[in-house]
């Protein structure tokens, strides 16, 4: 087990190093930020001073080493637009709001998917599956940003019961959470339904039926635990996409999270802020997948011994 | 345990009839939207640019000259929809085509010629999982400024992996077939054989995959347009029209609804068409799906 953990840890560090290096490359593609930060006819001395302050006058390999060194010391550079404010500080201020929304959306989506998949297999009704997957196909054909607008149209404009933006109270959370949850519902209902179907024809299930167990008991205690393992893996792999999708939902509902911060930084060309946000997202992705793999290793001896 | 709840019943495949009507309905839906975008600009009432401040935010079906109403500047919504549709669909088809072509060439070489290409291909897919397209596009847009070309380049550079995987898998399976080995014995070069005998067979699979991919790519590009990372105003696109419509969602909800419905029809249409292929070649699609996540 110790070797397995060590190997995964090294892998995680390498992935992070690659992502951090990529953000460095992205940042240098545009050259010096003087054209964005200074007025058009700024004197050359001013441009040189800025380049010197930001380290853009050094050779590229030295810039890279300085940058990586800074990252290791927790220095991710100051925001271009708010001089003196560390970009990472701006990112950290937004994390709680994003976490709240993302966690609620994912939890509700997974719960709904679990209920749907289990109810299909408990009742054994094919019509239930047709309804759930039919709803899923319709939902999948609607981009998140448009689904959010449809909700606004119904609940804010039409019924006037929910606020269309901000994160003032729990009512403001309903529509963004619904947008995320229904999107996740589609993915995970299909996944859990498939996994349950596969498990339901396996030998141990047949044995359970042969012992005279009731159908409900077999589904809930025998097949369901095994069917949930792939969900864990897929959720881990999908986390990057999920966090990317959060950007869109936050933007529709003016939710003051990480995604809105990043888009704002794109419009104002504040690269260090985007850079710090990307690094944080990569860290979240890598740590979550590390946890998933370690849990897998604990549960499944085949993984940790391979 | 009741008879209806037997595992075999629950695991039964989808009804056969749906597999035929689905693609048919899908083709009709996509066809309606595409024909509208192509033909509406030929009608005499077409004018996507003239502003008319006397007729701002008209609802649909209120003015015979503007069947779908007007936008905040009094421009004809139906004309805007057709023009934006041409641009949106054009970009989507271009992205899918470029990706399919790159994937075809790289995947076939990896599968048939093997070696280093193979290793790089598989490694690249893993990096992509940690850095989804939208985050890469955000980072590059922050560095270089958002533009439609940046979006197209980013999507063209990242999305081909799915095609490459399918091409590689198909090429691998063809490698040892007689009609591939025979010309080699007669002295044909590896490249010639790959081009003449492997690629045409792989291309069929790629074409199927590409046709089913239109919906997914449309979902991505319209999201990027909506966020301001793709097509830039004043050029219209469906995603951009929805983002403009969001500002007038209370006075004139049709401004967001009309382009939204167009996007919905295209995506659901292509998804319905692809269901036939996902049912028939599910193994193919499982390989493909692994390599491409937004």
What does this structure look like?
The complex is a heterodimer of chains A (306) and B (294). Chain A is 79% helix and 0% strand. Chain A is an all-alpha fold. The longest helix of chain A is centred in the last third of the chain and has 38 residues. In chain B, 71% of the residues lie in helices and 0% in strands. Chain B is mostly helical. At the A-B interface, helix 1, helix 5, helix 6, helix 7 and helix 8 of A face helix 1, helix 4, helix 5, helix 9 and helix 10 of B.
Mean of residue pLDDT values of chain B:
78
Low-confidence stretches of chain A: none
DSSP summary: helix tally of chain B = 12
Approximately what portion of the residues of chain A adopt beta-strand conformation? under 5%
Instruction: Write down how many β-strands of chain A occur, each being a DSSP E stretch of 2 or more residues.
Output: 0
Instruction: Please give the oligomerization state of what you see.
Output: heterodimer
SS-based class of chain B: mainly alpha
Protein topology:
The complex is a heterodimer of chains A (306) and B (294).
Chain A: H1 2-28, H2 34-37, H3 44-54, H4 60-72, H5 87-123, H6 126-140, H7 144-158, H8 170-200, H9 203-210, H10 215-252, H11 258-267, H12 271-299, H13 301-305
Helix pairs in contact in A: 1-12, 5-6, 5-8, 5-10, 5-12, 6-8, 7-8, 7-10, 8-10, 9-10, 10-11, 10-12, 11-12
Chain B: H1 7-10, H2 16-39, H3 77-113, H4 116-130, H5 133-144, H6 148-158, H7 161-174, H8 178-185, H9 190-227, H10 238-247, H11 254-280, H12 282-291
Helix pairs in contact in B: 2-3, 2-11, 3-4, 3-6, 3-7, 3-9, 5-6, 7-9, 7-12, 8-9, 9-10, 9-11, 10-11, 11-12
